[in-house]
Amino acid sequence: MGLGVGWRLAAAGCAVDLFDRGEAGRGASWAAAGMLAAGVETEPSEEALLALNRQAQRCWPDFAAELERTTGIDVGLRCEGTLVVGLTRDDVQQLRFTFDFQRRLGIDLAWLSGREAREREPHLHPSAVAAIYSPGDHQVDNRRLVQALKQAFVGAGGHLHEQTDVRAIDSARGSVRGVWIGEILHPADAVLLAAGAWSRTIAGMPPDTCPPVRPIKGQMLALRMDPARPILRHVVWAPKVYLVPRHDGRLLIGATVEERGFDPDLTAGGVLSLLEAAWRALPTIEELPIDEMWVGFRPGSRDDAPVLGPTPIEGLTVATGHHRNGILLAPLTIDMISRHMLTGEIDPAIRAFGIERFAPVTRRVEGERGQPQRAEHQQTELA
Fold first, then answer.
1. Is the CATH number 3.50.50.60 carried by domain 2-72+142-209+304-382?
2. Where are the domains of the chain?
């Protein structure tokens, strides 16, 4: 989010500095699977989030094309669709409930028999009973996306400071003044907090301004397929696992969901559970070599929805808490947050996802903060 918003602001003429505690884009964005699953991931009580997710999904083709034009990097947008597979009769009962619920929300889905599912993916387990096919749920190569955003940001004139911790956000009399890098104040007219799961670790924010975001640990691994003869083409969801094939032959398998704080360790149990669930759906994987294993930290908010927009501190904006939808929501977040920072406008699509929903006593910010500054005079910091 920081790289993308920084790109837009720098391209608009702002002087933008981006600070990252590590290497830019190597947090949850790097650890993700890159699924654009606005449809099949929708669960009861997420109807409001669905509208935001579907709007973001529609942005992806143009966004991917713009990044490729700007940087020459193909971000690997693939549009084969997604399969959700049931392997037992019990699985199918849950699958039918999900299918009916999501169809009532207007999501385009097709019900497939086990045979029809195996016609699409011949290496699925022979006992697969049924599947849902979602033609609108796709994938992007999230690591190539990060590389493209980093190149676009720097190419637009943004200043990137990696391996640089932001100790605190500085404000006075209700307005932001900049960020503290160690004992040095870096002044700014506007600050965007886009620190993902680390958003609460940056000091200087009163309770009604600090986003209630926590790390949700996820373990993942990648196997290596023959790119000329991949055993999977679609993104496949199966009980307790998802599988995401890449054009380069990698097959991503993920992901655990663990409330373990910033525990960085891969565990035997976590990896075993993923491999076993993947093997039950796609037995052919047992012959594939393991390419990589890793841990990531999703930024989860109190209601598992993103935290977007202004805060009670004048000039401080947040874009965090995207949980499992960060890659999906990237184009929308980048455009709407950068527009807000340039003009003061709050797009109706993100108004329901402001930080004030967590603190009813916090004054509601509606964007009437005076005339926006001209872009060429803004100095912006992205933490």
1. yes
2. 2-72+142-209+304-382, 82-135, 213-301
The three-state DSSP-derived secondary structure of the chain is CHHHHHHHHHHCCCEEEEECCCCCCCCHHHHCCCEECCCCCCCCCCHHHHHHHHHHHHHHHHHHHHHHHHHCCCCCCECCCEEEEECCHHHHHHHHHHHHHHHHCCCCCEEEEHHHHHHHCCCCCCCCCEEEEECCCEECCHHHHHHHHHHHHHHCCCEEECCCCCCEEEEECCEEEEEEECCEEEECCEEEECCHHHHHHCECCCCCCCCCEEEEEEEEEEEECCCCCCCCCCEEEECCEEEEECCCCEEEEECCCECCCCCCCCCHHHHHHHHHHHHHHCHHHHHCCEEEEEEEEEEEECCCCCEEEECCCECEEEEECEHHHHHHHHHHHHHHHHHHHHHCCCCHHHHCCCHHHHCCCCCCCCCCCCCCCCHHHCEEEEC
What homologous superfamily does CATH list for 213-301?
D-Amino Acid Oxidase, subunit A, domain 2 (3.30.9.10)
Q: What is the pLDDT along the chain (383 residues), one digit of tens a residue?
A: 999 999 999 999 999 999 999 999 999 999 999 999 999 999 888 888 999 999 999 999 999 999 999 999 999 999 999 999 999 999 999 999 999 999 999 999 999 999 999 999 999 999 999 999 999 999 999 999 999 999 999 999 999 999 999 999 999 999 999 999 999 999 999 999 999 999 999 999 988 889 999 999 999 999 999 999 999 999 999 999 999 999 999 999 999 999 999 999 999 999 999 999 999 999 999 999 999 999 999 999 999 999 999 999 999 999 999 999 999 999 999 999 999 999 999 999 999 999 999 976 434 443 333 333 333 334 555 65
Please tell me the pTM assigned to this model.
0.92
Same fold, 2-72+142-209+304-382 and 213-301: no
